[in-house]
Amino acid sequence: MLKKKWTIFIAASMLITMLAGCGGNSGESNQTSSLDSSGKTTTQSDKPVVLKFWGGVPAEYGPQLTVDAFNKEFKDKGIQAEYIRFVNDDTGNMKLDTTLLAGGDIDVFMTYTSSNLVKRGTGGMALEISDKLSKAGFDPAKELGNSVSPYIYDGKVYGLPTKMENYYILANKNMFDEAGIPLPESWTYDEFRETAKKLTKGEGQNKVYGMYWNTIMEIFRPSYIAQTVLGSDFLYKSGGKETNLDNPEFIKLNQMISDMMWVDKSAVTHTDNVTQKLSVESVFLAGKSAMSLGVWTIRSIKDLEKYPHDFVTAYLPVPVSDKSAAKYSIGEGAAGDFICVNPNSENIDKAMEFVMWYTKGGMLSMTPYGRVPMYQGIDSNKIVDEYMKNGEKILDKNTVVKFLEKKDNLAVSTETKKLPEIQKVFNDALESIYTGKKDAASALSEAKISADKFLK
Amino acid sequence: MYLKLKLSRQLKTDITGYTFILPNILGMIIFTLFPLLFSLFISFTDWDFTKGLGNWNFNFGANYIEMWKDGWFTSSLFNTILYSLMVVPISIFLALVLAVILESYCFAKVPMKLAMFMPYISNIVAVAIVWVMMYSPWGPFTLMIKALGWETPPAWLGDYNWALIAVTIMSIWSSIGYNILIYSSAIQGLPQDVYEAADVDGASEITKFFKITIPSLSPTTFFLVITTLINSFQVFAPIQIMTRGGPGTSTSVLVYYIYTTGFTFFRMGYASAIAWVLFLLLLIVTLIQWRGQKKWVSYE
Asked: Among all residues of chain B, which has the CA nearest to that of A218?
């Protein structure tokens, strides 16, 4: 009997402590939140608002410098910022989305693709800021250039594009000089292919290839080159009811890539790429290819400790199928790095101050790591200087300047209907082309048929 | 009066009991039961994960019909079955042979067993990355095969026909240690008198292996077949790291496709439907094995 009493007592006390545990927690959080709000209302000056800024770039590649600069400038205005990194992949973006949906502790965040921007804007995860911008006297089209217009949806701004995108080919200038080939200002596919052939030398493990297509990171990337002729929304036929995968431009481009890999043997094959898990760093920066795709690897190019090299990297425009038909400069989308405000933030106005500061030049501390500001009010020499920082000896300034020039003929993708599915079909087809299994014409026309099913 | 007291005492005991298991039950309900039922529910909707909770329409099993017309699904299903058909028999038979050799003909049993068990307890991500290097054209595995006389070995992970086999080889290598361990402990428990009787009758080692060892280990084999099969149907990590389903769809397996549909296409409803089909498949296969065991499993 006594024993039983004890068990009941222990059980009951366990239950009570458990409940008390819950209660204690909620009590604590109540306390802190009340402290917060009182701190805000009464003593704003000694306890600044700390904005939580989420971005996908590792803190040491610019964001920390940016936030530090902001904190220094806004010290007396009662605003501070703190950078939190999320990994910019599917999983990381999902984490950001769920945190936003759950009303999490985020004030400002970056969005990296237009499809995510639309999704977040229409899903209540990113604040519509057009009226706030007009109140601040900021007209995106005027201040950031015409290429922002595709990212304004029926007058709604879900995030300000801050970074200009452009798409260039990396070239090992020393190898070009050695082979006596001048750096081209523009070139056709045929000229490009010839050059790659001339630059290929050696055999086996010591072979130096003319071109490294970097098809492993995203097999889709080289196909952006077709945008020079096809322009915006190059994946869809007009009307958006059919995909454009069988377009002759795609066929010509991808057949050339495949031929360079398997016929000329002047480019690293996709198979080698997959089986050895290669990268721009392990091929181009190791001196194993004369050219590559991947201006975005500027962080690695400048990191001489991790990737020691002494050659000069030049930026070359992408080849085009036909010089007279190529009307567009390409980006993967002309603008990127959309800075957004969390609609559930408690400090929306202060967050907007940060957004404006960042867009209007605060982001310049990111430029040495490859992020080129869109804001027209920044002196272009300053941008060049920032971009060249710590890379004066290994970057070819003459060609980099051309890359950094403001361009008004950027091709911009806006149609995103069923894009992930269409891209997967496209990727499967590209894989069969780049492994030499199928020719481009048949693989792409088959791909078009299966991709079209998603648009019905 | 007495009855009432007794009832309440019973009640008290119940309360005590349930209080003790309450934390566990709560955890089970929140983290297992609820997600389970929720996934069953959304598998009948067209829920797009990005549209937020509540924005779904019922499509009355359309997901379950659609998947059979979906080429990515059917090839993933095919690859899963093919993979299991390779992994299960090879890894179990090889483990049995190795366990017998280890137990009866081997010096330094313990270090040997440990060496074979190492891959199993190593992190699968690390193991997969090491194997990517092994398979590369300049990797040890490829060079070894070249040295053995195969002049143009396949591109392994980059080859449509060999990629799945390459993953299978790695999976067998990494999981075999566990099977060996289970088999060796079962072998140690086998009655010696049967073997002695066979020796008296003049049976050869091979005959003893096939007529005594295999039949008396059948309960262990049965257990391993079921667990290995379930594991191989759920393979994900090596695929994600080594091939990402490629080239083409040649190594896309069901769980990887569920992941793609859910987190690349954001079609949670469809992904859940596939997950439930995978569950049903596993259930059916296991039930068939359970029925079939009467024919070949003997518990003495």
From this structure: B244
Question: Which residues of chain A fall short of a pLDDT of 70?
Answer: 1-46, 331-334
Overall pTM > 0.80:
no
- Which tokens hold the place of B135? 């398979």
B257 touches chain A (CB under 8 A): no
Domain assignment present for A3 = no
Bridge partners, residue A313, by sequence: A172, A395
- Scanning B106-217, the segments in alpha helix (DSSP H) are 109-121, 124-135, 140-147, 163-188, 192-201, 205-208, 214-216
The answer to whether B231 touches A410, Cβ cutoff 8 Å, is: no
Spatial contact of A262 and A269, defined as CB atoms under 8 Å apart: yes
Question: A238 by DSSP, 3-state: which?
Answer: coil
pLDDT digits (tens, 9 = 90+) for B121-136: 999 999 998 998 888 8
A4 touches chain B (CB under 8 A): yes
When scoring B11, B18, B19, B30 by the number of chain A Cβ atoms within 10 A, the one with the most, hence best to mutate, is: B19
Pick B136's closest partner by Cβ from A270, A275, A437: A275
Range of the domain at A345: 49-165+334-388
Distance CA B11, CA B5 (A): 10
ipTM of this predicted structure: 0.75
Burial category of A135 from C-beta neighbours within 10 Å (exposed 0-12, middle 13-18, buried 19 and up):
exposed
CA distance A225 to A332: 10
CA dihedral B42, B47, B48, B49 (to 10 degrees): -40
Which residues 258-277 in chain B show a CB within 8 A of chain A? 260, 263-266
Distance CA A117, CA A360 (A): 20
Give domain B66-296's CATH number out of 1.25.40.10, 3.40.50.2000, 1.10.3720.10, 2.20.25.90: 1.10.3720.10
- Chain B contacts in chain A segment 206-265 (CB below 8 A): none
